[in-house]
Amino acid sequence: MIYKFIYKIILFIIFPIVFIYTFLQSILLRDFKYFENRFNSYLKLQNKNDICIHCASLGEINGAKDLIKEINKNNNILISTNTISGKKRAIELFPELDVVYFPLDYKYIAANWLKNSQVKSVLIYETEIWLNFYNLCKEKNIKICVINGRISKEVLTGPKILKKIYKEALDNCSFISCKSDYEKEKYLSLNIDKSLLFTLGNLKYSCMPDFADELSPVRNKKDHEETSEIFSAIENRRIISGKFISDVRLSNSNVKNYFLMASTHEPDEKYFLESIKYLTDKGTPVIIAPRHISRSKKISKFFNKNNIKTFLYSSLKEEDRYASSNWTGVLILDTFGDLLNFYYDALYIYVGGGFSKRGVQNVIEPSTSGRPILVGPNIDNFYEEIINLRKDKGITVIDDDEWLPAKENVLKHIKYLDNLDLEMLKEIGGIAKAYTLKFNGVVEKYVKFLKEKKIID
User: What domains does the chain contain, in order, with CATH numbers?
Assistant: First the structure.
């Protein structure tokens, strides 16, 4: 077919660029396995693995970690990823498992990778489409399946060839488990066979705080109302955990009641500039965790230019400094893995991406903190989750307003939340927390389904 031919031509044309980029990246990352795995398909494995679970990057690793833990009890797992941050996180969580980079989608490379891995099944977390890889799995009788499936709206509104490639690849799947009915409808719009599609829920609901203490059994109860004890303990500071209440810098200082902007994308900082000026002038600290920490210095320069004092979290760590109780300004989290430490002491939280083309980031993780959440208008990535939360007033969506510029519209919502008392803020945040806890059993649901489909033991 013509689209297959075009796909092959594109791969052929970009081959030299891809080769050079992959080689240079391996040098830059100081990890030559990046080149070996992605290009030569050389895999040095310690275990004999039956199942590969592919998670594109760090966020996907975090989203799949509880499912991987359950599957790992009775199965040998190979974890694949595309990024160094994803690999580091996977090794941190699962040091006993093999963690490798996913191959580039050239047929001979992907074929060698599959041969060397010797896996019998491949689970793709969310939807990452590589036409040759999917076709090869089908040819070699390797089951390929999508879990927590979703499709970006750019695919549905994009070129016809892109939709053709998606359909061709997905037709090779043994099944596609969607994270919501909303996402299932997207797959159906690509004319995917209905019998392949299932809705099992969003695996990110499994990403609950996991405290290694006597309250863990309480957290694991399925009735969300019975888990209130652990959140009360968090708020009263009866739990001191190195994982969630950091023993260094801001999160163990006297600074609380700040505004947290989590996983921001451009133009979030620009749209929130007036709101941040309003808050810092009042003495309310602001903490910003950019989705890509490479933006940190750029964000710092932007606020400094606008006469707002900024600090980089990495500098505080390096210099062993603590924030004082009367500290104000903007703290930029430019380190991996520290965002979780800052959810519970926030007054309210903005989850970024909703003003960008990419769309809103994960709202489930911060919802467990019991703090009010704000998001921008592009909610497609978590559409069903946000719509259901919004019905119960558990989340605020800053919709586009034709009568107000974006900055003024944002400021209006910030001032509204800022004028609420702490009890009201806790009540709003509690709605989102209670809703999220209802889905505590999503991992068990996936495990049962995968056993029925004979993917895992």
Answer: 2-207+443-452 (3.40.50.11720), 246-437 (3.40.50.2000)
